[in-house]
Design brief:
The protein has 10 helices and 20 strands. The longest helix has 18 residues, at 309-326. The radius of gyration is 22 Å and the shape is globular. Helix 2 crosses helix 4 and helix 9 crosses helix 10 (344-358). Helix 9 (309-326) links the parallel strand 17 and strand 18 (331-337). The strands form 4 sheets. Strands 16-15-14-17-18-20-19 form a 7-stranded mixed β-sheet, with helices on both faces. Strands 2-6-5-4-1-3 form a 6-stranded mixed β-sheet. It has a 5-stranded mixed β-sheet with strand order 7-8-9-10-11. By secondary structure, the chain is α/β, with parallel strands linked by helices. It folds into 3 domains: 4-67, PUA domain (Archaeosine Trna-guanine Transglycosylase, Chain: A, domain 4); 75-189, Transcription Regulator spoIIAA, CATH 3.30.750; 208-393, Vaccinia Virus protein VP39 (Rossmann fold, 3-Layer(aba) Sandwich). Bound molecules: S-adenosyl-L-homocysteine. S-adenosyl-L-homocysteine (SAH) binds at residues 206, 209, 229-232, 234-235, 251-253, 256, 280-281, 298-300.
């Protein structure tokens, strides 16, 4: 297939020389061959030197780079990329681990596959395209995925209805590309949980908090725990395994509360230490007493775009201030932000301000981030999105 070409303005290849995987539309001088969104294009300097190839997009990011070499993007290409990704997950101990069958196999730019996310839950891989290019390639990718993972997976569910650019008008439908099994109990470090990949948020579970949940487990013994924004209850069942005295899970979505109750029941049947409440976080924090000495705040992204940053920071400030106000002396606060546009410094300042408002003596015990199966491409620092602080509140 003839490849279309993008020519950069003079000097605009600098970021590509540093392997940054995005080309902004403003860097482009002209385009040859009238590519459609999702087409593969080759990128050249003004002097016609090959720089990269990638998927063409409409919008401020015009090309997402798949390779800095002039190579074919075919099934063999996907197979090689997925093999590298799988090897990484095996080497960090999250894949082929008898106690853990839940991991992120592909994390977009972090795996040099911009626009693609693949999460594995037991025998099912959930594939999500964030770019038209990846949507176009989905069958080839699925084929390569089957080969690379072999019989460790039986189902591939494609879930891109809400992640593809709306304007592209692709009308993608969620559905199985392979298999169709709906037995959906997966395992994370020995704890079981139901994954609702058909209707759940993201690919069905927040895989990115795995290592932070492990840390929480260590702090849970004999504590009274509040898991705010619990979704499927991940932090709650780790707290219970860690020996918490009591665990309260709160989420505004009653579906999330049902899932949390199911998951707690799956691991700790008839355990009366747990209760879950469907309620707004701010209302709950206002009305609750001072019974908790371990609080988790893991809200949804308050800012999805740069222009929402100010309000988002105010949101983090308000939320954390309430926790500082109510947490027991000697309490531990796990607080997070998953907004990509909120930097580590932004988040720390918001939490710092909240602490100061409470007048409490607060110390940072741990600074948390996303786990190793959500790697950050060193040439694409924007890929670091999850930030967390573990605080000791006197
Ligand atoms: N901590 C979870 C992931 C949290 S996702 C985990 O480890 O899996 C964010 C959750 O916040 C969602 O489940 C959403 O329903 C919930 N949420 C959003 N706004 C809320 C609000 N105002 N009050 C309480 N929960 C809210």
């Amino acid at each position: 297939m003839e490849c279309k070409s993008v020519f950069l303005k003079p000097g605009k290849e600098e970021s590509l020389k540093r392997f940054h995987p995005w080309i902004f539309s403003g860097a482009i001088h002209h385009i040859e061959g009238e590519p459609d969104e999702g087409d593969l294009v080759k990128v050249y300097t003004a002097e016609k030197e090959f720089m990269a190839l990638g998927h063409f997009q409409i919008g401020s990011i015009a090309v997402r780079v798949l390779s800095f070499q002039d190579e074919l993007v075919n099934e063999d290409f996907w197979r090689r990329k997925l093999t590298v990704a799988y090897d990484l997950r095996k080497s960090i101990g999250v894949a082929l681990n008898p106690l853990n069958n839940t991991f992120r196999l592909v994390h977009g730019e972090g795996d040099n596959l911009p626009g693609l996310v693949i999460d594995v839950y037991g025998k099912t891989a959930v594939m999500q395209a964030h770019s038209v290019g990846m949507h176009v390639c989905r069958m080839e990718i699925a084929e390569a995925l089957s080969e690379v993972l072999g019989d460790t997976i039986e189902n591939i569910y494609y879930k891109s209805e809400t992640t593809l650019p709306y304007k592209a008008d692709l009308g993608p439908e969620n559905g199985f590309i392979k298999g169709g099994c709906t037995d959906n109990v997966a395992m994370e470090y020995g704890l079981k949980f139901h994954v609702d990949w058909l209707k759940g948020q993201k690919t069905g579970f927040f895989v990115d908090q795995r290592e932070n949940r492990v840390l929480l487990e260590k702090y849970a013994e004999n504590r009274t725990v509040l898991n705010m924004f619990c979704y499927t209850g991940g932090f709650s069942f780790y707290a219970m395994r860690g020996g918490a005295k009591l665990v309260h899970s709160v989420d505004s979505s009653s579906k999330a509360i049902d899932l949390t109750n199911q998951n707690v029941e799956l691991n700790f049947p008839d355990d009366t230490r747990h209760a879950a409440y469907a309620e707004d976080a701010f209302k709950y924090l206002d009305r609750m007493g001072d019974q908790y000495d371990l609080i988790i705040l893991d809200p949804p992204a308050f800012a999805k775009h740069k222009d929402a940053l100010r309000n988002a920071l105010q949101g983090y400030r308000k939320l954390n201030a309430k926790a500082f106000e109510k947490i027991k002396p000697g309490g531990i606060l796990f607080t997070f932000s998953c907004s990509q546009v909120v930097t580590k410094e932004n988040f720390r300042t918001a939490v710092f301000t909240a602490a100061a408002m409470s007048g409490r003596n607060v110390r940072i015990l741990h600074q948390l981030t996303q786990p190793a199966d959500h790697p950050v491409n060193i040439y694409h620092p924007e890929g670091e999105y999850l930030k967390g602080l573990v605080l000791y509140v006197e």
